[in-house]
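Budget justification aside, the reviewers requested a transparent look at the raw inputs and outputs of the sequence design task funded under Objective 1. We therefore reproduce one unedited record. The lines immediately below are the structure tokens for a 280-residue chain.
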């Protein structure tokens, strides 16, 4: 299977139900694991805050991204529906590739609408910059690209350390061996397609950070990558299905608590730091 896609399409914040029951918890947990097992896209504001912005620019850019976040809130109902579908998938006694394909295809369509709003917001913020600030932004983007090139497999991905995970969950030697094998497969898979992902992101950034934002060209780029995104999403979901299948009910409940704590950390950050994530 050939995969080429931006991993950020899988970062949607699925609400995690507290309904009890091992099968249901496994499904909710899978959504959390999909969030933390893939590379997370940077908050739009964090990109601009690296520049020497005036007070007025800071306020205007925050307002732009805040409005975009509010606009994207209308898609929460769709995210809830997709979470329910993912729960059904993860409760299957055997892997259902066809259902996974349907779920991820819907998610890709949804995420494209959200991403277009964010792309427009980034371009609007970019238009507020001076020529000097635009040149500085180009340096920031280039430096980030160089860091990606030097990154070792797995370094750019937010994951639970397998050995720490094993200790917390009290897994058997056999379970640990299986989890390690799945993690290695996932890391190798992501690393193999990272350069192709970078090509897509570079093309997208060129469109966004230009004098005029060509929406048709941006949509054409997304359409070109759509099938690859779907294939990526299906494969990532399968990795999580495999991992969940290794654990017993008690271990899944413990892991769910750990993942919920990770997801909720952002909510405990100081207000100023949370405000920097308005466009995420």
């Amino acid at each position: 299977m050939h995969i080429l896609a931006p991993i950020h399409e899988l970062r949607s914040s699925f609400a995690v139900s507290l309904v009890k029951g091992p099968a249901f918890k496994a499904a909710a947990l899978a959504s959390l694991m999909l969030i933390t097992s893939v590379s997370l896209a940077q908050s739009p504001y964090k990109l601009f805050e690296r520049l020497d912005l005036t007070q007025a620019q800071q306020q205007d850019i925050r307002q732009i991204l805040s409005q975009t976040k509010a606009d994207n809130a209308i898609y929460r109902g769709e995210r809830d529906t997709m979470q329910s579908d993912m729960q059904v998938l993860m409760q299957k006694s055997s892997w259902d590739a066809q259902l996974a394909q349907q779920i991820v295809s819907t998610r890709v369509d949804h995420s494209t609408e959200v991403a277009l709003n964010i792309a427009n917001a980034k371009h609007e913020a970019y238009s507020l910059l001076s020529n000097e600030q635009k040149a500085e932004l180009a340096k920031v983007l280039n430096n980030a690209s160089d860091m990606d090139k030097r990154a070792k497999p797995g370094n750019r991905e937010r994951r639970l350390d397998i050995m720490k995970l094993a200790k917390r969950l009290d897994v058997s030697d056999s379970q640990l061996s299986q989890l390690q094998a799945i993690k290695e497969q996932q890391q190798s898979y992501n690393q193999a397609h990272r350069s192709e992902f970078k090509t897509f992101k570079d093309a997208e950034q060129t469109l966004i950070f230009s004098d005029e934002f060509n929406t048709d060209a941006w949509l054409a780029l997304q359409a070109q990558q759509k099938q690859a995104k779907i294939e990526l999403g299906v494969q990532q979901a399968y990795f999580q299905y495999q991992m969940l299948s290794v654990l017993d009910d008690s271990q899944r409940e413990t892991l769910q608590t750990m993942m919920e704590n990770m997801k909720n950390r952002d909510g405990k950050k100081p207000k100023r730091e949370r405000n920097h994530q308005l466009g995420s």
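Residues 1-28, 31-41, 150-159, 270-280 have pLDDT under 50 and may be disordered. The chain has twelve helices and no strands. Computational costs for records of this kind are itemized in the attached budget.
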